[in-house]
Amino acid sequence: MEATSLLRPGFADPVMHAQETFRMVLDAMSRPGSLHASTVSLEPPRSLHPATAALCLTLLDHETPLWLDPSLESDEVWTFLRFHCGCPLAEERSAAAFAVLDGAPCGLASFAQGTPEYPDTSATLICQVEGLREHGPLILRGPGIRDRASLGLSPFPATFLEEWEGNQARFPRGVDIIWVSGKTIVGLPRTTRLEM
Fold first, then answer.
1. What would the pLDDT profile of 151-188 be if each residue is shown by its tens digit?
2. Rounded-to-integer distance, Cα 15 and Cα 156, Å
3. Which of 58, 95, 187, 196 has the fewest CB neighbours in a 10 Å radius?
4. Could you report the per-residue pLDDT of 105-128, keeping only the tens digit for each?
5. Which residue segments constitute the domains of the chain, with CATH numbers given?
C-alpha cells in the first residue's frame, strides 16, 4: 500500500489550530487536574486519540525525537507523524523529547530526565487513557491548585503513585505528563503531588 493512501489530513488551519492547541496545553499544565477539551476537528490514525494527534501536530517537529508505545505503532501512524510533524523516531525512551503511550506509564526513570542545569530537556509523556473526569479518587496538590483538586482517571494502576513519588524525588529533573482521553486533556507537571 502506498504511503499516500495511509495519510490522514492534519490541521485545516495549521497556524490557528496549533496556536489554539498550544494555549490549551499551557492552561492544562498551569492548572493541574483541570480538564481541557480540544475544539480542533481531526480524524487521526485509529490508534491515536484526537487530542493526541492535535498535541503531536503542535509540539513535534524535526528537532523533537518521539518514542511511540509499540502498541500504538502502525504504518498509518508513522506516515501521519512523519508527514505532518517531521519528527524523528527515538529508538530508546531515554533519547525522546516526547513519548506517546497507551495507558499510565511505568518506568518513568527510563525517559529523559533533564539535568539540574537544564531540567527542561526532560521528556513530556502523552498518555492515552479510556476516561478522564474532574472528580475522582486521585488527589492533586501543588502549584496551580488552590488547596487541592481531584481527578478520575481510568484505568489507573496503583503502582503509578509510587512511580510518581520517584519522579518528584528527582526534582527539578523528572518528566511531565499530559493525560489524554478522546478530545480531552489533563496536565500533570512534575511539581504536582498525588495521593489517594
1. 999 988 888 999 999 999 999 999 999 999 999 999 99
2. 35
3. 196
4. 989 999 999 999 999 999 999 999
5. 13-189 (3.40.50.11310)
